[in-house]
């Protein structure tokens, strides 16, 4: 009950400065689009880069890994492809998790709630703003 009251108080404070908050939010989004986070899998053999808006903007596949994967027969190639696909998914997921953390930090720096119990979290605020 008191937790909801704290969240409502924090929300009321933010709504009191809605135009300033909207301006900060737009500035934060523009800055996040320029920032990147890199995730990796397979000991760095696969690296994925996403921007702060979670868009995949880069993918690196290690040449030595590709050469090793190309050798062998059809069965080995299929297994290599499956491992490569799994590593790509893992690298993108790793990069996106880092980008989410980066976005949360940017949100707090822009004047959003500072942490747990200090108002709505990033997901709640996104839903409130129609996202």
TrEMBL record:
The lineage of its organism: Bacteria, Pseudomonadati, Planctomycetota, Phycisphaerae, Phycisphaerales. The keyword DNA-binding does not apply. Keywords: Coiled coil. Residues 107-131 are annotated as: Disordered. It comes from Phycisphaera mikurensis (strain NBRC 102666 / KCTC 22515 / FYK2301M01). This is Nucleoid-associated protein. It holds the Pfam family YbaB_DNA_bd. Residues 11-38 form a coiled coil. GO terms for molecular function: DNA binding.
